[in-house]
Amino acid sequence: MPLSTSPKYRCQKSPSGSRAFVELNGVRHYLGEYDTEESNQKYHTLLAEWTAGRKNLKVDQNEITVVELAARFLEYAKGYYVKPDGTQANELANFKPVLKQLKVMYGNIPVVDFGPMALKAIRETMIRDGRARTYINKQCSRIRLIFRWAVAEELVAPTVYQALLAVPGLKRGRTSAKETVAVRPAPLLHINVVQSCVSRQIWAMIQLQMLTGARPGELVIMRPVDIDTGGKIWFYRPITHKTAYRERPRTVYMGPKAQEIVRPFLADRAVVDFLFSPQEAEIERRTKLHELRKSPKSCGNVPGSNRQIQPELKPGVRYTVSSYRRAIERACVCANVPLWTPGQLRHNAATNVRKEFGLEAAQLLLGHAKADVTQLYAEINELKAIEVAEKIG
């Protein structure tokens, strides 16, 4: 907090003498005799703790309730889980059901009374609600993270968090919680058949995922400025990605086939504009429909010609992961094939690369390299990834 906006060191005069105080959140905190070294030190200490606590002072750990803890953590999470472009990261949305359940079931109890049995009760509620075992384990881990954060903020005694660590995760085959179905590659026949049911933008992203193993979130934000086209292999470095907060670099390698897919979208486009635009897709769709209606061969029998075409939502400047997924789902319905998702395409790419080049090559191409590899090992990895991209396109 800038000094100019900090609560002031103030003086309250009385017949018995002058007392120093500072007003925080509408409450006066008296510091001792005015204009003394001791009161000045107390002022700076209190102000520093207030600022570090996001304008909250330390509370009695025996008095703070679960609902108060949840509110403070949510305030912290809104500022912490943010992408480099300033938008909210998805992890915040993952915490909201957890915080809601904490407040509903245990909101009014002191945090000090929240122990392993309370965590087990929340877990059992999720099992009864039909949640999958892996989801439940992740949500319980988020509850522990909330209490670990609270320990660092001196809102909770370390023993409270340590007690929650004693609750193990649910084990496969030893719980009534349902199991999730493992994600499998999408059948190639089901992929190819949707081409006529999607825009060229969506089809380009589908093909790119198959060739490069890029994540859906990396493709929807692709821009010319982020693509190095200076060599035989193109390097796409997303402005943000899943592990950016861990300071891990991410490069998507594009061989000849991938380049041919991307090249038409680079023409006549500002370097900071997104490559795949739903607005352009909607214009192209309407233009094509208009031409079909005007064609003498159509005889007025063009599908949908007697109804007004309205998009599901007003198109944005770029696709989101959700809108990309919905476009594929609608295409699967249109093509009358079982639903598959963009996430499965990444598995397709991984399976193909692993089959031909081995597990290590698949990890490299998909961005699964460990963070603690040496610089020499990273250079060898990049050469290997380039070799793979040249061969598979």
Please tell me about this protein's structure.
The protein is mainly alpha-helical and 393 residues long. It has 3 domains: 3-52, no CATH class; 66-164, DNA polymerase, domain 1 (Orthogonal Bundle); 188-277 and 317-392, Orthogonal Bundle (hpI Integrase, Chain A), CATH 1.10.443.10. It has helices spanning 37-52, 66-80, 90-106, 116-128, 133-152, 158-164, 188-192, 200-212, 216-219, 256-266, 278-294, 321-335, 342-357, 359-365, 375-392, and strands at 10-14, 17-24, 27-33, 227-228, 234-236, 252-254. The strands form 2 sheets. A 3-stranded antiparallel sheet has the order 1-2-3, covered by helices on one side. Strands 4-5-6 form a 3-stranded antiparallel sheet. Strand 1 and strand 2 (17-24) form a beta hairpin. The chain is elongated and about 100 Å long. The two termini are 52 Å apart. Mean pLDDT is 81; it is low at 298-312 and 370-380.
Task: Show the helix and strand layout.
Layout lengths: L9 E5 L2 E8 L2 E7 L3 H16 L13 H15 L9 H17 L9 H13 L4 H20 L5 H7 L23 H5 L7 H13 L3 H4 L7 E2 L5 E3 L15 E3 L1 H11 L11 H17 L26 H15 L6 H16 L1 H7 L9 H18 L1
Antiparallel strand pairs: 1-2, 2-3, 4-5, 5-6
